[in-house]
Amino acid sequence: MKQTGVKIDGVIYSLDGDLGHNEFLDEFLKFIESKGWQYGGGSFQVDEEGEQIKDIDD
Questions:
Q1: Which residues share a beta bridge with 46?
Q2: pTM attached to this predicted model
Q3: How much is the average pLDDT of 36-57?
Q4: 10 Å Cβ neighbour count for 53?
Q5: How far is the C-alpha of 18 from the C-alpha of 40, rounded, in Å?
Q6: Taking a C-beta distance cutoff of 8 angstroms, is the pair 44, 22 a contact?
Q7: How high is the pLDDT of residue 58?
Q8: Which of 3, 6, 7, 15 sits a CA distance of 20 to 30 A from 36?
């Protein structure tokens, strides 16, 4: 059976300051798993202009 899903392409910023990559991924994966869903893909930390930067929470 062929599955259908949703592709995400965008940037998420916090209204309360900086959002760390690991912090986001932890919460995102908790949400996904709580729904019984799976996520496959990549992600990286960006600055306010959307440019890739070193993770701020490493």
A1: 52
A2: 0.84
A3: 94
A4: 11
A5: 25
A6: no
A7: 81
A8: 15
